[in-house]
Design a protein that fits this description.
Elements lengths: L1 H23 L5 H16 L2 H15 L5 H19 L1 H17 L3 H16 L1
Helix pairs in contact: 2-3, 3-4, 4-5, 4-6, 5-6
Length: 124
């Protein structure tokens, strides 16, 4: 029963965040879009050094900007990548750090992505 409730809650969160996304974040500038595309490519290709280098650039460019969704998305995928391919313990710690960062900054979108990262890691 708890597992079903979890999936229902996660589905509702995903549906809710998609409507927030339409209002919250405008189209990314070209350079930032290229960086995120490179990060996703490196993630898929498992180019660890390139991935972490590129995602750091994305995070640096978006942390205190109007692109909070992009920032927290990059953080969450970085934590998941760390957990899956590099170091389980460090990946879990990164996900918890995202959660605390979002909570400290009162970021709803940050809380969503932190929960997403923690849930994904827990499921694995």
């Amino acid at each position: 029963m708890k597992k079903v409730s979890f999936f229902i809650l996660l589905t509702l969160m995903l549906l809710g965040i998609s409507s927030i996304r339409l209002r919250a974040e405008e189209k990314l500038p070209t350079k930032l879009l290229q960086l995120t595309d490179e990060a996703y490519r490196a993630y898929s290709a498992r180019e660890t050094d390139n991935y972490f280098e590129t995602v750091k650039k994305v995070k640096d460019a978006t942390e205190f900007s109007q692109y909070q969704e992009t920032y927290y998305r990059a953080c969450s995928y970085e934590a998941i990548y760390m957990f899956e391919y590099v170091d389980h313990k460090k990946g879990v710690q990164m996900a918890h750090d995202i959660y605390h960062h979002a909570k400290t900054n009162n970021s709803n979108v940050g809380m969503y992505f932190a929960t997403f990262a923690l849930g994904t890691i827990r499921e694995q």
